[in-house]
Amino acid sequence: MARFWVCVAGAGFFLASLVLHSRFCGSPVLRNFAFQISWRSEKVAYRLDLDWPKYSDYFTGTTFCVTVDSLNGLVYVAQRGDNIPKVLVFTEDGYFLRAWNYTVDTPHGMFAASTLHEQSVWITDVGSGSYGHTVKKYNTFGDLVQVLGTPGKKGTGLNPLQFDNPAELYVDDTGDIYIVDGDGGLNNRLIKLSQDFMILWLHGQNGTGPAKFNIPHSVTLDSSGRVWVADRGNKRIQVFDKETGEWLGEWNNCFTEEGPSSVRFTPDGKYLIVAQLNLSRLSFLAAPPVGSIGDCSVISTIQLPDQVLPHLLEVDRKTGAIYVAEIGAKQVQKFVPLNSYLLSFGL
Ligand SMILES: *[C@@H]1O[C@H](CO)[C@@H](O)[C@H](O)[C@H]1NC(C)=O
Ligand SMILES: *[C@@H]1O[C@H](CO)[C@@H](O)[C@H](O)[C@H]1NC(C)=O
Ligand SMILES: *[C@@H]1O[C@H](CO)[C@@H](O)[C@H](O)[C@H]1NC(C)=O
User: Fold this and answer.
1) Cα 322 to Cα 304: distance, rounded to the nearest angstrom
2) Which ligand lies nearest to the CA atom of residue 231 in the structure?
3) Would the N or C end of the chain have less CB density within 10 A of its end CB?
4) Burial class (CB in 10 A: 0-12, 13-18, 19+), 195
5) Nearest to 203 by CA among 239, 174, 168
6) 47, 33 Cβ separation under 8 angstroms
7) Per the confidence metrics, is the pTM higher than 0.85?
8) Measured on CA atoms in the order 119, 125, 130, 134, is the torsion positive or negative?
9) What is the DSSP string of 106-170?
10) What are the pLDDT digits (tens) for 20-54?
11) Spatial distance between the Cα atoms of 234 and 214, rounded to a whole number of angstroms
12) CB atoms within 10 A of CB 251
C-alpha cells in the first residue's frame, strides 16, 4: 500500500514527501522520497486524497483501470490476478460496495456510461479465454448485458466484429461508442459504433502516418466534437472529427521520452490529462477550445515515484477528481482539485 503525504504548500509549487509502505515485503518497509509538483499555472492544483479508498485491502490484484459514474457517485476499478474479484465498486467517498469476477477474464480498460434510466459499466477484456477479446457492458451489479466482438476469438474481422486486445472505449452522451483496438495484437484501429452497434466509421491501419496507429491505448472526446487518441507506440496523440472521422492533427512534441497511455479532459475542458506509464507521470496539457489543435504544451505535471506505473485514469465530471489506476503500486489513487481550481469549474 503506497501513500503520499502532502505536507508543504509553497508559492507556485508544492513540495511533498512520500511514505511508501511496501506491500511486497514481509514487514512494512518505510521509504522516504521527496518529489516536487511544479505548476506553471497555479490554477491547476490537486492534492492526493489520503482517505480514498477507506481501506485499500480490496486491491488484491494488479489494478489496470478505473472509471467513474458521476451521476450515481460510483467508482469502478478492475484488477487482474488469480482467484480474486476482478471488478470492485466503491462510492466516490471511498466506501467499498461490492465486487464480481464472473465473465471477466483480463480487464484492460473501462467506461461508466450511466444515463438517468440505466446504470452501466463497459469493460474491454484482453483475455485469451472464453470471455477474451471482447468489449462488454455490465449493469452495476455485474450482470452481463451486452458483448461486442467474438468472445474467445481474436481477429481483424469486421463481420463478425473481432477485436484483438481491445484497449479502451469511450461512450458519448448520445450513446455512440468509440473503441481503440488494441493493446498490441493484430489490430491498430479506432472504431466508432452507433448505439445499436453498427460501424459508423473506422481507421484500421497499422503505421506511423496520419490516422494510422501503433497501440492505440486510450480514447476520449471533448465538448467541441473531437476524438483524442493516445497512439502510444507512435508517441503521439491523434485527433479526429467525431462525426466524420476526419483526421484533424496530432501532438507529438510532448512525448519524445514516452508515448501517452491515457487521455482524459478536466471537466472545464481546459486541460487534457495524460498518463505516461514508465515515467510514472501525469501531465496537464493545454487543450485548444475549438479549431486547429496546434502544438502540445505541458502546463503542469504530477511526478509519481518510480515504479508506480499509472496505466489508465479517469476524471469525475462532477467534482473534477482524478482517479489513477497504477499497475506498479497495485492501487488506485484519487487526486482532488484544490479549492482555487475547483472554483474555476464554476461548481
Ligand atoms: C472470484 O472471487 C472470489 C472472491 O470474491 C474468489 O474466491 C474466487 O476464487 C474468484 N474466482 C475466480 C475464477 O477468480
Ligand atoms: C505496426 O507497425 C509498427 C511500426 O510502425 C511495428 O513495430 C508493429 O510491429 C506493427 N504491428 C503490427 C501488428 O503489424
Ligand atoms: C515500459 O517498460 C517496459 C519494460 O522495459 C516495456 O516493455 C514497455 O514497452 C514500456 N512501456 C511503454 C509505454 O513505454
Assistant:
1) 14
2) 3
3) C
4) exposed
5) 239
6) no
7) yes
8) positive
9) SEEEEEE---SS--EEEEEE--SSTT-SEEEEEETTS-EEEEES-TT-----BTTB--SSEEEEE
10) 333 332 222 223 333 344 444 456 789 999 999 99
11) 6
12) 23
Q: Indicate left, alpha or beta for 142 from its phi (over 0: left) and psi (-120 to 50: alpha).
A: left
Residue 289, pLDDT score: 87
Contact 308, 40 (CB under 8 A): no
Task: Identify any residues that bridge with 217 across adjacent strands, giving them in sequence order.
Answer: none
Instruction: Name the grid cell of 339.
Output: 479549492
Question: What is the rounded end-to-end Cα distance, in angstroms, of the chain?
Answer: 32
CB distance 206 to ligand 2 below 6 Å: yes
Q: Cα–Cα distance between 15 and 22 in angstroms, integer?
A: 22
Nearest atom in ligand 3 to the alpha carbon of residue 278 is 1
Would you kindly state where each structural domain of the chain is located, as residue ranges?
A: 41-343
Fold of 41-343: Neuraminidase (2.120.10)
Q: Which residues are 284's β-sheet partners? A: 273, 300
Pairing verdict, β 271-276 and 236-241: unpaired
Closest-CA residue to 6 (of 29, 34, 38):
34
Sheet with 166-171: strands ordered across: 166-171, 177-181, 189-193, 199-203
Residue 66 to residue 132: CA distance in whole angstroms:
19
Q: Which ligand minimizes its atom distance to the CA of 127?
A: 1
Chain mean pLDDT for the chain? 88
How many A from CA of 327 to the centre of ligand 3?
Answer: 12
The residue whose CA is least distant from atom 10 of ligand 2 is 206
- How far is it, in rounded angstroms, from Cα 80 to Cα 60? 9
**d(C-alpha 310, C-alpha 301), whole Å:** 13
Q: DSSP letters along 40-63, please?
A: SSTTS-EEE-TTSSS-GGG--SEE
- Ligand 1 atom closest to 99 (CA): 5
Burial of 346 (0-12, 13-18, 19+ CB in 10 A): exposed
